[in-house]
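Justification of resources, computational component.

The compute hours requested in this renewal are based largely on the per-chain cost of generating structure records like the one below. Each record pairs the submitted sequence with a full structure-token output. That output is archived, and it is also reused by downstream analysis tasks.
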Amino acid sequence: GCIYFAPFDADQVLCITAEGVVELLAPEIPGSFKYDARGVLARNGCIYFAPCHARRVLRISAEGDVKLFGPVIRCSGFAVGEDVQSEDGSDVDDSDDSDADESEDTDGEIRLKYSAG
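The structure output for this chain reads:
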């Protein structure tokens, strides 16, 4: 298994493998004070991090895939953070709310409910 650290002021998720190799995982997540709490390991094997000043929830799969999902989080009337962009400068589609459209995640344990505003 690996150990994952959500970025606070860093730009990427930090991964330490069982062999002690340190890696940075894509995508880059710009901004400051993004994730300030411990992750929660769900029964589906994913680790979820609640945003502090990030725009979306951070999910790291058991395979180490990083995804930002859920509604855009706003703070004091403005969106925090910046849009995530790919290496070619185009916007990364982090607005895939397909998980939120379902009442349950794949293992029936994670219930995602929110209203888009």
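The longest helix spans residues 98-101. Helices lie at 98-101.
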